[in-house]
Amino acid sequence: MPLGNEIAYVVYQVNDLDLMESFMQDFGLLTAHKDDKSLFMRGAGTSPFLHVTLLGDENKFIGAAIRMESMEDLHELAKLPGSSPVTKVEDYPGGGWRVRMMTPDNVQIDAVWGQEPAKEVTHRPPNPFNAGHVKARYNASLRPKREPGLALRIGHFVLRVSNHPESVKWFNERFGLLASDYMCVPGDKSQVIGTFLRMDKGEEFVDHHSMLIVQAEVTGVHHCSFEFQDIDSVMGSHDYLVGKGHRLDCGVGRHLIGSQIFDYWRDPFGFRVEHYTDGDVVNEDYEPLYYDVFADDTTQWGMDPTRDFFE
Predict the structure, then answer these.
(1) Which of 2, 102, 196, 272 is most exposed, with minimal Cβ within 10 Å?
(2) How many domains does the chain have?
(3) pLDDT tens-digit readout, 164-200
(4) In a domain, 36, yes or no
(5) How far is it, in rounded angstroms, from Cα 226 to Cα 122?
(6) What is the residue range of 294's domain?
(7) What is the CATH number of the domain that holds 78?
(8) What is the pLDDT of residue 311?
(9) What is the pLDDT of residue 310?
(10) Nearest CA among 223, 191, 177, 200 for reference residue 291
(11) What is the rounded CA–CA span in Å between residue 186 and residue 189?
């Protein structure tokens, strides 16, 4: 079975590239490439880009990409019904090869391999934290600033789907994704309506989830999420975005499922984007849990989402 390695990027279409670029720079991404038809934003890591915006009349989510382990994985995927042939990438920075597929809800998913890595952007290490019983900072003070943070990488994205079991099966068969935890109808653990999916790397620890698939009346993207270095980076960026007049969606808080410290914002076109830090990492020994709670019960501290947050 082909195995996904990590989320590579997400793709949107909007009618104003300049407006998206300005927001994303405030949000914590850097411009990797821009022309009159497309915008590519990157983070601090070696991925050539993380967020793609194509110019078009309709503002919409197009899809995402998953980076694969090998060229052989691409050839295996190309054999599946509905897959494109293995194609050399010539329209996106970094090149490489891809296979293009469509989910049951017609979301474009690219499997990619062989991108030329970008040079890592210099960024600060995590700030040492003096916990109650464990001190890591001596004879030194912290001076975090209210400024745009710097996204390290894209961590995950969330899809609202019309048929939850069908979509989970689709991603499992193509990318070997494993269930970490389940969201259920509140009060009824027998009715699963959401599955947190992670990459399968056996005993190696990976992010608790790279995707969430959730049953919903309206299909499409719920949000995409970018990892920040630490809570100082999240909070400094939060205050900066408030000062710039951007639209806060929900945050700051700590999730129940996955434990991340989160901060959700809306871009100028209404799409939800998230900063996060301090998320769980799990491996093959992790046992999935079933959470039968409302959306506003999924925050342990901080700002609660509305009950219709995942709808």
Answers:
(1) 102
(2) 1
(3) 999 999 999 999 999 999 999 999 999 999 999 999 9
(4) yes
(5) 17
(6) 4-118+149-302
(7) 3.10.180.10
(8) 78
(9) 83
(10) 191
(11) 8
